[in-house]
Each structure stands twice: as structure tokens, then as C-alpha cells.
Amino acid sequence: MASPSTFRFAALVAVLSILSLLAVPASCYENLEEPAAMDDSRHNYTTRRQMWAAARGGSGWSYGGATWYGSPYGAGSDGGACGYQGAVSQRPFSSMIAAGGNSLFKNGRGCGACYQIKCTGNRACSGRPVTVTITDSCPDGTCQVEAAHFDMSGTAFGAMANRGMADRLRSAGILKIQYKRVPCKYNGARIAFKVDPGSNPYYLAVLIAYQEGDGDLSAVHIMESGFHASCYEEREEPTVMDESRQNYTTRRQAWAAARGYGDWSYGGATWYGSPYGAGSDGGACGYQGAVSQRPFSSMIAAGGNSLFKNGRGCGACYQIKCTGNRACSGRPVTITITDSCPGGTCQVEAAHFDMSGTAFGAMANRGMADRLRSAGILKIQYKRVPCKYNGARIAFKVDPGSNPYYLAVLIAYQEGDGDLSSVHIMESGCKSWTPMQQSWGAVWRLNSNTGKPLRAPFSVRLTSGSGKVLVVKNAIPAGWNAGKTYQSATNY
Predict the structure, then answer these.
(1) Are 319 and 299 within one domain?
(2) Residue 265's pLDDT is what?
(3) DSSP summary character for residue 387
(4) What 3-state DSSP class applies to 436?
(5) In the prediction, which pLDDT does 262 show?
(6) Per-residue DSSP letter, 170
(7) pLDDT at position 261, please?
(8) Which of 125, 133, 356, 477 is deepest in the core (most CB within 10 A)?
């Protein structure tokens, strides 16, 4: 039983909470993305085991939560972490999509999976199920309140409502829903293979979409034309590596190095893309073509899971050097994490860097870059270092899918830590900070859940991975435009 002092403390917190809300205009605190109070009874929430069973398949309904983002009548972010881009608003997706929490998105392996969702606990709910496809990630905030959470497009969320009550349902906040995994049906649409713009004769990246049935993919294999010895010798099988302690870091050491600056740790490195390029010329952090331009200048890497951290590692800087190959110079090079390498060779070591061809070659002795690039998986040493961009300003690129009710921003070029642990925003006329949600990679977003437009100019408060805070006043001006980049006057 709680002591009287416990109840007095709880009462004091409640009073302080009410007073703080009274000091803020209603239009401001209505947009705070705090989890709504929810019934924790067993009939309202699935256990984690039940949730995973539902995610794998089966006919039974499970319980979870749902919110919506983007335009009330749009397709969420008009893109998303699965890479479908503008296709989410077109047939066969037709804006009936959702960003999945971690248990549904599965580091991208949940992309393309289909679910039926229905709500019954609100008067505006029709009780009729709607079918959505996972096209985006919702890794933070309210999306982690329940074991399974769908951040649905405004179109899909409103489709659960009774006729004429879609706007009322969209104002309900976090909604209790039932969901189940279902086969994807696209009315005979053909599977699409979209070749990534960064592909070249040495590197092929392909977006795969519209698979009926399961919808998601666990593995993809490719066969080149004229299969013979020279083909299978190029398979990306892990090479035999010395597992002695001096050559490989423990997972604890890897995480320690990823959290802060310090001594050299051991890991592995490969390269991807063009031999003289910037990897994929884009990547899972969302920096797009900027990776090949200053200040990144193609000196980038895709990080394994312990470095990418579901996008929270985007922007972090590391020095990397190699000494175990005759082509290695032993001189460290500095790279920035701009992409994710979630499987295969990138999980062989506790810390793995899949570097651009430019960055990988920069570790070589003069004239030996091509020889080093032919070495396969390379043993390297690495350490976290402060990012230095020679006075570059922090960039706030407004996502093309943003609108008066939804703001998504790519944030880049933070000096110092480079990464971000949280982002808050303050609307014009407000006196309090509202937390933004990490959408994917280095993209952060804010919804207006009140049905009223967000009010610019917006000030932004950045918190780095180590807790350093920087406030950028009026970072995004009144009259902002979707797709445009705005620069700060300050940096860390």
C-alpha cells in the first residue's frame, strides 16, 4: 500500500501539471504528443507473445493502439522509411497505409505487410475493418506505448469512422483498436522493381513493392547473367576472420564506443556503391544527394544496428583506420553515419561500417585504393569523434509531404555529437515546447491533432546524444514551403 506521503506527492504533481497547462494557450497544449490515458485491463491489450503471434499470421484479432499523421486526407508522410516515396498515395496503396511501431516495422523487414484494423471504443467508430499496408516506421513516442501501434495515414484512420464522422474520429487522440495480419491483395498488380538512382555498374540497389500474399520479404537473392565461376566467387559470403580478442571488440565495448568518445575499439568494414562514390548516394537517414556534397563530401558509412540505432545514430562521426592489410596506410579517416546496414555481413561483428567507396579507399596507401577495396571484409579500429563541418550551419529541410497540419523536417550538419536524442518545437504564440516524433532516420515530425493548422514561425530545440541542448529561434519561418531547406545562424 502506498504511504500518505506518496499520495501527497502525487497530488502536488497533479496540481503543478494543471497550473502549467493554464499558463499555455489551449491551441499549444492540445498538440502535445503525450500518451492518452488507456485501460490496462487484459481484454484491451494483447501480451507481447500474443502480439508477435498476430504479427506472424493467424486469424484472431489482437489489441493495440492507433494514431494518424500527415494530412487529414493524405497518405501520411507521402513517402516513408520503406522507400515507397510518392507511390503511397497512388494505386494500389491508395493512401491506405500506416507507419508501424518497432514490433511491426521490424527494422524494415515488416515493409509491405498488410493488416486489418478496426475500432469500436469510440462513438465515431464504425466497427468495420480497414486494410492498411506498412510503409513507414514510427520508432518513438506514442508508437511505443502499446506492444503494437499503427500510426495511420489520415485517410486510413478516417476510413474506420461512421459516415460523416471521420473528423471527429481523427480528433480522438490515441485510439484503442483491434488488428490482425491478412494477405495483401492488389487486384493483380505486378511486383515492381525500382532501381535506386544511386545504382551503377558496380552497385545495384532495388526497391521491391506490391508483393501479394505475405507482402513482406525475409530475403532476396539475385543471379547474374551467364552464371559461372566468376559469378559465385563474387558472392557476399562472410570471409573467415580471426576471432581472437585482439581483433574483435565485445558488444559492451562496441556500445561504449558508440555512446561517447574514447579509446580505439575493434570492428569490421566493407564498402558499397561506386568505388569513387558516396555509397547509395542517399541512405536510410534521409540525407539524399547531400551525402556526396560538402560537408559530407562522400566520406560516409552505413552503420550496423549498434551504430545506426534505429536512426538515432544518424549524423554521428567516427574515425576509422586499418592496419592488417598491406594496402592500409594506418592513417585514420573521419566518416559520418548516413545509412543503415541491418543484415548480412554488417552483423558479423558487434560494430560494422559499410563505407562509401571513397571513404574506404581513403584508408589506403597512395595508389593502393583499388587493392584495398578488393580485400573483402576488413578488420578496422574505430572511435567516436566530434563532428566538425568547418562552420557549416545546421540545415532544416522541410519534407515535401508537409502541410499546414503536418510538419516533417530533416535535420543535418550538427557539429559536436552530430546525432540527436530528441527534438522539440515551439509554435508561434506558444510558451511551451512540444516534442516531435522521430519519423525515420534524421527526419522528425509533428502532427496537429486539433484540426487547426500549425502556427509558424517555429523555434526548434535540439538535444544531442550526450544531452547537449541548442535552441534555434525561428528556425522555420512564417510562410515556409514544403521541400525547402532553412539554415540556422548557430551550431553546436
Answers:
(1) yes
(2) 95
(3) B
(4) coil
(5) 62
(6) H
(7) 56
(8) 356
Amino acid identity, position 217: L
CB neighbours of 274 closer than 8 A, spacing ≥ 6? 200, 202, 203, 357
| Cβ atoms of 96 and 131 closer than 8 Å | yes
Say what the pLDDT of residue 214 is: 95
Beta strands of 138-197 (E only): which ranges? 149-153, 175-182, 192-195
Residue 13 within any structural domain of the chain: no
Question: Which stretches of 119-260 are assigned E, i.e. beta strand?
Answer: 130-137, 149-153, 175-182, 192-195, 206-209
Q: What pLDDT shows up at residue 121?
A: 87
Count of CB atoms within 10 A of residue 370's CB?
Answer: 12
Burial of 269 (0-12, 13-18, 19+ CB in 10 A): buried
Q: State which residues of the chain have pLDDT below 50.
A: 1-27, 29-58, 229-260
Q: Which domain holds residue 325?
A: 251-385
Q: For residue 422, give the C-alpha cell.
A: 530528441
| pLDDT the model gives residue 343 | 77
For residue 347, tell me if it sits in a domain.
yes
Say whether both 263 and 282 belong to one domain.
Answer: yes
Same domain? 45 vs 149: yes
Please state the length of the chain. 492
Whole-angstrom CA distances from 35 to 194, 261, 355, 454 are: 38, 34, 39, 20
User: ω into residue 129 within 30 of 0, thus cis?
Assistant: no
Query: Do 86 and 179 contact (CB within 8 A), yes or no?
Result: no
Instruction: Tell me, yes or no, whether 239 lies in a domain.
Output: no
**Selection from 118, 132, 55 nearest residue 88 by Cα:** 132
Domain count along the chain: 3
Q: What is the pTM of this model?
A: 0.66
Closest CA to 335 of 369, 299, 305: 299
Element counts in the chain: helices (H) and strands (E) = 11, 23
> Which triple of cell numbers denotes residue 289?
544527394
Where on the phi/psi map is residue 78: left (φ > 0), alpha (ψ -120 to 50), or beta? left
